[in-house]
Amino acid sequence: MPKERILIVEDEEDILELVRYHLSRENYRISCATTGENALKIAGSELPDLIVLDLMLPGMDGLEVTRNLKNNSGTRNIAIVMLTAKGDEADIVTGLELGADDYVTKPFSPRVLTARIKAVIRRRTNRKPDDTAVIKIHDLMIHPGRREVQVSGESIELTYTEFQVLHYLARRPGWVFTRFQIVDAVRGADYPVTDRSVDVQIVGLRKKLGPAGGYIETVRGVGYRFKEA
User: Fold this and answer.
1) Cα distances (Å, whole numbers) of residue 101 to 24, 54, 116
2) Mean predicted confidence (pLDDT) in 22-40
3) What is the structure's pLDDT at 15?
4) How do residues 39-63 score in pLDDT, each as one tens digit?
C-alpha cells in the first residue's frame, strides 16, 4: 500500500537527491521543491503529510515558509521536519515555536533523518482529539460529558444529532469535513441519510446558536468546518 506523501524542500541538488533516494526506499511518495515559493504551491495543491524543509533557501526562507503554512487553514496541519546548519539555535527555536514538529542539523545522517520522520508521522497518526474535553471558543462552550452547549452562559437545547455534528466539527477547528465524513462520524456509515440532511442539520444549528452559528463555515463544493478561535 502507498505510504504517506512527503515534500522535500531543498535548494542543494546533492542533498535533495540524497533525501529523495532514502525516503523513496521507504516507499514514501515524494515531491520536491527548490524554493520556498514553489514549496507553498505544491503544499497547497498536493497537501503532503509531511514536509522536509531546509531553512536556508533562496528568496523565501524556511521560517517564512513555515509561517505561511501554519497561517493557512488548509496547510497548517501538515507536519514539518526542519533541516538546518549546526549552530542556528535561534532559527530552530523560532521554527519550533511557529509549529514545526522536529529538526535535523546539517551535516546529517540519512538514517537519523528517516527515523525522525517516521517518529513524527507515528505521533501524528496516534494523536487523536480528546472526545471528553470541554471546548470553549469565545462565547461558545461545549461540554461532551454533560452534552451541554452554552452561548454567553445561556444553555442551548440541541437534538442528539445537532450536538453530534457540532461537537464533531468543533473538536478540530479549521479542518474541512465533507458531508459524507460528517454523516459517517455522527451516525455511522450504514445510516441512511443524504447530503441534504447534513445541510438541514447545519441550518438548524446555526439558527439555535444565534451569532455563534457563524463559527460553522460552509466550504463551497466540499462541506463544512468550524472557524478557529
Assistant:
1) 21, 14, 10
2) 95
3) 96
4) 999 999 888 999 999 999 999 999 9
Given the C-alpha cell 520522520, which residue does it identify? 117
- In the block, which residue shows the cell 487523536? 128
Q: Domains in the chain, ordered, with CATH?
A: 5-126 (3.40.50.2300), 135-226 (1.10.10.10)
CA–CA distance, 133 with 41 (Å, rounded to integer)? 35
What amino acid is encoded at 41 in this protein?
A: K
Residues 6+ apart with CB under 8 A from 218: 202, 224
CA–CA dist 211, 228 (Å, integer): 15
Regarding pTM above 0.85, the answer is no
Q: Compute CA distances 41 → 31, 74, 117, whole Å.
A: 12, 12, 22
Q: Which of 163, 171, 150 is nearest to 228 (CA)?
A: 171
Q: How far is CA 138 from the centre of its chain?
A: 21
Q: How many whole angstroms separate alpha carbon 213 and alpha carbon 169?
A: 12
Burial of 188 (0-12, 13-18, 19+ CB in 10 A): exposed
Cα 229 to Cα 170: distance, rounded to the nearest angstrom? 10
- Please give the residue that has the higher pLDDT: either 202 or 74: 202
In angstroms, the CA 95 to CA 91 distance is 6
